[in-house]
Specification:
mainly alpha
């Protein structure tokens, strides 16, 4: 049941509903967040395998990003947009929360979406690796699970508040185990855990900023963290690939563990 809850929360894929299902079940399904990320990653990897020999790399990247947006229902991008509108336009915590709840999209939100998609496009075009497509959705959703558990809720109602109430350390431990396994399997013993550590540290810092400005994290903040997590992870992988190509000593260290 919790797997189905996580699947419906994070994707548009159909899943059966249950009578006991409620908002708090989202928090209880934290352990399955990386599993859903793995499903998304494998879906993207399969698509890449089908089209990379047919289309040029830039078009392949554009198709993959489009499919990722569609598969997730653009929910995370919506959260990113609302969060950045509130961050820039709001002057007080109350104003920021009010702007975040507004269904209208401002110029800062649109800019955040455009820049996020642009960076993803550029990074994917330069990397073009199946292992990256699998790892990125997993590790970014793991960091969101951590943020739900660690940081307080910005509101006393809504999906984000209910998810926070249902979250548990046991669920996050399960999510961490799954993520570590995937990262080691597809990234190697060094690069995989290193990417997890870097991303979690940066996401924790961003969470602290959100907490200071919003009084906590909301559902929109969780969506923003997923998008920012994907961007940061892609940038880190891109840096590793560049170093691997330009530094012989670094090459000998990274090549066996990345598997690219």
């Amino acid at each position: 049941m919790l797997f189905c809850t996580a699947l419906k929360f994070l994707t548009i894929f159909p899943a059966p509903s249950f009578k006991t299902e409620g908002p708090e079940q989202v928090g209880r399904s934290l352990g399955y967040f990386p599993v859903i990320g793995l499903i998304i990653g494998l879906f993207l990897a399969g698509l890449f395998w089908l089209i990379h020999g047919i289309f040029a790399a830039p078009l392949v990247s554009a198709i993959l990003i489009t499919v990722l947006v569609l598969v997730t229902g653009a929910h995370h991008l919506d959260g990113l947009s609302d969060t950045f509108d509130a961050l820039v336009a709001g002057r007080t915590t109350e104003q920021r929360l009010s702007i975040m709840a507004d269904t209208r999209v401002g110029v800062f939100g649109i800019s955040a979406i455009v820049l996020t998609l642009l960076i993803k496009y550029a990074a994917l075009t330069g990397i073009a690796a199946v292992s990256t497509l699998i790892m990125i959705p997993v590790v970014s959703r793991w960091t969101m699970a951590g943020a739900i558990l660690i940081f307080p809720s910005a509101r006393k109602s809504g999906m984000g508040y209910a998810a926070k109430n249902g979250a548990s350390w046991s669920g996050f431990a399960a999510a961490t185990t799954v993520t570590l396994l995937v990262m080691v399997l597809f990234g190697g013993w060094i690069a995989g855990p290193m990417l997890m550590a870097i991303l979690f540290g940066l996401m924790f810092c961003i969470g602290l900023i959100f907490r200071r400005l919003f009084g906590g994290l909301s559902g929109d903040c969780y969506g923003a963290l997923v998008e920012l997590g994907e961007v940061i992870a892609l940038i880190v992988v891109s840096v590793l690939v560049t170093l691997r190509a330009s530094n012989p000593q670094f090459y000998s260290l990274i090549t066996p563990v990345l598997g690219w």
